[in-house]
């Protein structure tokens, strides 16, 4: 998700920026960036669904120590994502106030906005990649030497064709679809996005009615990518983005599916509803000029029984759940159910 130019949100048609910095961090270091414990810093916003994919993946794979994480303020300004949650308003490792500083060290006058997730090379202070589509796939497949014991296979080779197809459909109609609806500047543009979104959600409802996870019988990258949109649905997309055919809590299958994931270690324990709501309602001034943040919705339902285990499935395959959340990364009590 890009930072900067907040006043434009809701005043011009939505277009998802392509990642400009697409270097990959790989086991063989072929792009000049070898996998190395402690060398890189993952910069995220807990508000951003694209960044939240990386937070979930990193936690499921047990990469907390190997890939330390910086969390930005959910309310960025026109200078980009900022480290104002840290003492002195600077990231304690990178020593910068704004993520844009790491971008500038890599390339000045680059096209596009400053987006998260971003991985920064700590020794040089340069951005390595902001390729949100690739980062989590590489965490699953290139960082295996640093995975925790019992880490799940989030991108199993035998299922990649099906996973890729499901993710492509979800990306186009759901992950991006809510934004196309929310940032539409004309009625027809909005209605087209709305129809595509709910048509896809109907298809996903049918798919998930008889199976616990999207592909195969374990959690995969496809589930992570759908989860980060669904977990925000009632809190921001239903009202703020006018995706209001129904609330997620009114869709029996998807509501049970997302609660199942939320209650799985590595998913819900990364979600900060306070950051999510403050970002969308305070940053998108073109849509919500008053900046008022809704008090609701009631979060208590997230912890209710979902009964999805009756469908079978093994969340972590032959692996095990991740351990407790590191103390420094725990979501505050007021921001969770």
Question: What's the structural blueprint in terms of helices and strands?
Answer:
Layout: E1 2-3, E2 40-44, H1 49-61, E3 69-71, H2 100-106, E4 114-115, E5 118-121, E6 126-129, H3 132-141, H4 160-175, H5 177-182, H6 187-209, H7 221-230, H8 233-237, H9 252-262, H10 273-283
Parallel strand pairs: 2-3
Antiparallel strand pairs: 1-4, 2-5, 5-6
Helix pairs in contact: 1-3, 1-7, 4-6, 4-7
Give an overview of the whole structure.
The chain is mainly alpha-helical and 337 residues long. It has ten helices and six strands. It has helices at residues 49-61, 100-106, 132-141, 160-175, 177-182, 187-209, 221-230, 233-237, 252-262, 273-283, and strands spanning 2-3, 40-44, 69-71, 114-115, 118-121, 126-129. A four-stranded mixed beta sheet has the order 3-2-5-6, sandwiched between helices. The protein has a two-stranded antiparallel sheet with strand order 1-4. Strand 2, helix 1 (49-61) and strand 3 form a beta-alpha-beta unit. Helix 4 runs parallel beside helix 7 (221-230). The longest helix has 23 residues, at 187-209. The radius of gyration is 19 Å and the shape is globular. The two termini are 25 Å apart. The mean pLDDT is 94.
Relevant terms:
single chain, 337 residues, 10 helices, 6% strand
Short synopsis of the structure:
By secondary structure, the chain is mainly α. Helices cover 33% and strands 6% of the residues.
- Looking at how many chains there are and whether they match, the oligomeric state comes to single chain
**Number of DSSP E strands:** 6
Largest sheet: 4 strands, mixed
Low-confidence stretches: none
Give me the strand/helix succession.
EEHEHEEEHHHHHHHH
Give me the Rg, rounded. Answer: 19 Å
Q: How helix-rich are the residues, as a percent range?
A: 25-40%
Task: Report the structural category.
Answer: mainly alpha
Q: Count of helices?
A: 10
**Strands ordered across the widest β-sheet:** 3-2-5-6
In whole angstroms, the N-to-C terminal distance is 25 Å
């Amino acid at each position: 998700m890009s930072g900067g130019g907040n006043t434009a949100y809701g005043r011009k048609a939505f277009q998802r920026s392509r990642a400009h910095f697409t270097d990959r961090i790989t086991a063989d270091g072929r792009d000049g960036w070898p996998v190395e414990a402690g060398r890189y810093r993952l910069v995220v916003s807990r508000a951003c669904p694209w960044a939240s994919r990386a937070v979930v993946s990193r936690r499921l794979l047990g990469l907390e120590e190997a890939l330390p994480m910086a969390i930005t303020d959910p309310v960025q300004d026109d200078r980009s994502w900022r480290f104002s949650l840290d003492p002195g308003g600077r990231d304690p490792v990178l020593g910068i106030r704004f993520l844009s500083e790491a971008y500038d060290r890599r390339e000045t006058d680059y096209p596009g906005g400053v987006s998260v997730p971003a991985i920064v090379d700590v020794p040089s202070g340069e951005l390595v990649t902001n390729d949100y589509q690739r980062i989590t796939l590489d965490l699953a497949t290139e960082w295996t030497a640093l995975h925790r014991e019992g880490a799940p296979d989030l991108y199993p080779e035998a299922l990649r064709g099906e996973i890729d197809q499901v993710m492509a459909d979800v990306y186009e109609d759901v992950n991006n679809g809510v934004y196309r609806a929310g940032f539409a500047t004309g009625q027809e543009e909005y209605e087209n996005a709305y129809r595509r979104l709910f048509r896809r959600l109907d298809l996903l409802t049918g798919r998930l009615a008889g199976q616990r996870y999207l592909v195969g019988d374990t959690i995969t990258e496809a589930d992570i990518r759908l989860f980060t949109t669904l977990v925000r649905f009632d809190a921001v997309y239903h009202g703020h983005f006018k995706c209001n055919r129904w609330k997620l809590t009114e869709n029996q299958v998807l509501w049970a599916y997302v609660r199942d994931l939320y209650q799985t270690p590595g998913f819900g324990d990364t979600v900060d509803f306070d950051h999510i709501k403050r970002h969308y309602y305070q940053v998108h001034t073109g849509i919500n000029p008053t900046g008022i943040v809704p008090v609701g919705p009631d979060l208590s339902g997230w912890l209710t029984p979902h009964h999805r285990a009756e469908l079978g499935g093994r969340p972590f395959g032959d692996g095990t759940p991740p351990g407790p959340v590191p103390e420094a990364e725990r979501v505050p009590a007021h921001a969770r159910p």
